[in-house]
Every structure is written in structure tokens, then in C-alpha cells.
Amino acid sequence: MLGVLGNRVYRNLFLAQVVSLLGTGLSTVALGLLAFDLAGANAAIILGTIFTIKMVAYVGLAPIAGALADRMNRRNLLVGLNLVRAAVVLCLPFVTQIWQVYVLVFLLQSASAAFTPAFQATIPDVLTDEAEYTKALSLSRLAYDLENIISPTLAALMLMVMSFSNLFLGTVVGFALSALLIVLVRLPDPKPATSHGFLDRTTRGIRIYLATPRLRGLLGLNLAVSSAGAMVLVNSVVLVRAQLGLNEAALAWTMFAFGLGSMTAALLLPKALNKWAERPLMLTGASLMVLALLSFSAVISFWGLSWQSMLIAWLVIGLGYSTVMTPSGRLLARSSHTEDRPAIFAAQFALSHACWLVTYPLSGWLMTGLGAVPTLFILAALAAIGIATARKFWPSDDPVVVTHTHDNLPLNHPHLKGHRRHTHALIIDDVHPQWGAHF
């Protein structure tokens, strides 16, 4: 897996991702504590609103950013957005009102909505071999998981000697170092093979995404991931601080358990993907999350809430979370041409976060109004709906190479080479506007 770090450009990108994520992890812990400081036991509603604002920015701006990403210098774009994010986070330690948090979070996540898809779309352009790209995906997932482990651990240590507001400064340092690492390398800037208008480019990624069966299945799995993930991210602070009465460090260790499960799956997935296809692995991961939510609700119902059972549940959710998320980049790369890659990654970013836009506020409202057990059960049911959707739209026989016939092109079209019927990897584009054997 570590062999791909021999590529200097990817190595810098990976390190840029790591330091950025470490800083982001510190801000995640700090935001939870800031919400509790401002709202006490109602922190779940505040966090739910914060995450909803985050999702609105992601869903609304990611497709626009994807349309612009192939028209701008990739390095300048990523560096500039990192600096914007650093400047916004620098303001967070000084807020005194909840509305100020909301405004700053919107600005921060607007920059992230442009940064993340462009960054993700750059990796397959740097590592064009699928085996290397698969290793890079696992490393990327591992970076997210290490963030879930190292950042809470670092936060717990820092909280022993300083207030939580100082954690935001760690985020600023992370974004600044990320910008420096990116500016030191030259990134590929693929240009679209054909000219498309801005509106077409804005919607192109979503149209390709929804026309591809495996990606429609991925959308269902995104719902499962967001349902379980929202329970962890929104309600951990309420369960740990308000209901169990534990200290700030305990919250960090709780997030550590989730990250540990996710990291374990990321380490195992490269070998697993050599033996099994993405579909069964990802469906298994989603099912694990549902099982963890239901089991945790049963434990609370019969024996009451305990930190030990919560740590186990979060660990299993982390295992399932990473098992679904890590292979998704392979599906996106396989389902798009190089010139459409920024658009398709932006579509995944927007559509997956549309699921979070539902589950984040729902998780906070349910926890505040109904309590932990109904919240766990309802989110598990929503995740199960996502799994059923994935099974329906993503066929178990998911061919990459498809024999098909073109009636939509003249025989002298360069793509046909004199033959209307031919066989190749089917990807939705201008000459293949839909999935199937006939066009």
C-alpha cells in the first residue's frame, strides 16, 4: 500500500490531506464542545443545525465548483481554498453568539465544497493505474481514520492544559501546511475533450451519476452511511457529556473508537478488494452499521446506557463506514472519463451530502425530542432503506464492458469506425447518453 508514496506528487497530496484532516478533526471536537458551552443539553440541536448548514453549502455549491474545476489551474485553486478555510477558522475562537458560528461554518464549508471534489478528482489523474489508485484510496481512507483517532487523542491531551477554543488554532495550522505542500508540486489540469456550456457542465456530473446503475446503488449506500454517521457525529456529545456525565476527554476517546473501527477496515480492504467485488463488500459494511445501531438500542432498552457499549457500537459503525466509503472512489473513476472526473466527484460529493442534509437535523431533532433508543431505531430503519435501494438499482451482475449498438450516430462517426455494433467499457457520455445495449 505504501508503495504509491514513491510518486512525489501523490506523496505531497497525501501529506496535505493528512495535515488538513488532523486540523479538521481538532475543530470537530472543538465545535461539539463549543455547542455544549453555548447550549448545554440542547447541543444536539445546535450541532444538527451546524451540520445542516454544512450540507446546504455542499449540496448547493459542489456541482458549480465541479463545473469550474476543469477551467482553473488545479494547484492554485486548492491552495487558495485552503487559505480561505484557514482564515475562516481563525475567527471561530472569538465567537460569542450561536448565529456567528452558523455564518462562519457556512463560509468554511462553502470553501470545502469547492476544495474536496477537486482534490479527490486529482488523485486518479496522478495515479492512472487502477491497482495504484486502489491503494491510494485505502491510504486516503486511512488518513480519514487516523484523523478520527489521532485528532481526538491530540485533542484530549491538549484539553488537559488549555481550553477547547485553542483547538481551532490547530485547524488553522493544518490548512496552512496543506496549502504549502500542494504549492510545492505541479498538478495535472485535464481539459474537457469537448466544449460544454456552464449550465451543462454544472449538471453533467449528476446526469452521468444518475444514469449509471452502480452509482445509483452507491447513492443508496450513501444514505446508509449518513444515517449511522449522523448518530455518531451529532449525538456523541449529548450521550457522553449530558447523559453519562463524562468529561471532555471522554468525548475524544469515544470518537477514537469510531476511527479505530474505520481504520481497521481501511487496512484490510486492499486485499479484500482483490478477492471480492465492491458490491458485496459495501453491502456488508452497510449491514454492519444497521446491526450496530439496532444492537445498541436494544442494550440501552434492557440494561441502560453505558460508555462501554457505546464504544463497541461506535467501533462497529466505524468498520462498516469505511467498508462502504473506501471503494466508492473506484466506482466513480470506473464510471467517468478523465475530462468528466471533476464533475462526477462533485456529483458524489453533492448527492452524498444531500443524504447528510436529511440525517444530520433528523438525528439532532430525534435525540432531543424522543431520546436515544427511538433515534437509534429510526436511523437504523433509514439505513436499511438505503441498503434496499442499493440492492435494487445496483445489479449483482455489474458489467464494465458492454456490447452495444449505436443508432444515434451516423456510420461515419469517429466513434463507430464503420461498425454500429461494438464492445468496450461503457461509460455515460455524449455518445452513450444512457445505460444499455442500444443507443
Report on this structure.
The chain has 439 residues and is an all-alpha fold. It has 14 helices and 2 strands; from the N terminus they run H-H-H-H-H-H-H-H-H-H-H-H-H-H-E-E. The protein has helices spanning 8-39, 43-69, 74-89, 98-126, 130-159, 167-183, 198-211, 213-243, 248-275, 278-303, 307-325, 328-334, 341-369, 372-393, and strands at 401-405, 421-425. A two-stranded antiparallel sheet has the order 1-2. Helix 1 (8-39) runs parallel beside helix 5 (130-159), helix 2 packs across helix 7 (198-211) and helix 5 packs antiparallel against helix 9. It starts with 7 loop residues before the first helix and ends in a 14-residue tail after the last strand.
Keywords:
2 strands, globular, 439 residues
Q: Tell me the total number of β-strands.
A: 2
**SSE series:** HHHHHHHHHHHHHHEE
Taking pLDDT < 50 over at least 5 consecutive residues as the criterion, the unreliable ranges are none
Q: So what's the overall shape?
A: globular
Helix content range: over 70%
Mean pLDDT: 80
Specify Rg, calculated over alpha carbons.
Answer: 22 Å
End-to-end Cα distance, whole Å, is 40 Å
Order of strands, main sheet, comes to 1-2
Q: Work out the helix count.
A: 14
For the biggest sheet, the summary is: 2 strands, antiparallel
* Estimated structural class: mainly alpha
Q: How big a fraction of the residues is strand?
A: under 5%
